[in-house]
Amino acid sequence: MELHQIIRRPLVTEKTTLMREGNQYIFEVDPRANKIEIEKAVEKLFKVKVVGVRTQNVLGKQKRYGRLMGKKSDWKKAIVTVAPGSSIEIFDKV
Hints:
By secondary structure, the chain is an alpha+beta fold. The chain has helices at 3-6, 14-19, 35-46, 89-92; strands spanning 7-10, 24-29, 50-58, 62-65, 68-71, 75-82. The chain has a single domain (3-83), classed as 2-Layer Sandwich (Alpha-Beta Plaits). The strands form two sheets. It has a four-stranded antiparallel β-sheet with strand order 1-2-6-3. A two-stranded antiparallel ribbon has the order 4-5. The protein is globular, with a radius of gyration of 15 Å.
């Protein structure tokens, strides 16, 4: 897989903004990607040293559309810890 296929988008919420103080960044990633692939993709795309990667599979919520029940897609997120003193620039602009 290519790097941009592994890392889909950064997640920017109030909680993830607080986690940046601990050098942790959260991304939505491809569900088939493993921790090693995620680590290499983040290091190459953002030119930082990754200390650790934690992943979590998020189940899609049930949604009601009138009389019909639907389901949002399942997705995977990765919590990436970078070395102290380094940061990812795209998060600094938000």
